[in-house]
User: What shape does this take?
Amino acid sequence: MKILLVEDNLILAKGLIYSLNQSGFEVIHKENVKDTICFLNKALADIVILDIFISNCFNNIKTAAWFIEKINSGQLFL
Assistant: This one.
């Protein structure tokens, strides 16, 4: 299962990536919304874990709604 992790705190992201990898998940990490949108326009993930308070994001709620629409049948955790 492929998980997209959107987290700008690199220390937290590394810990999550390690734990998720140990549990058998494939993790794609993006540090910002711009890179995440570029990724989701090319590929999909089964689950998205989104830092709702990610920096440099104009409207986090609209961004989350866009992610939900984009992944359609997937799962989004905020």
Summary: The mean pLDDT is 80. Strands lie at 2-6, 26-30, 47-50, 75-77. Residues 55 and 73 are 27 Å apart (CA to CA). The two ends are 18 Å apart (CA to CA).
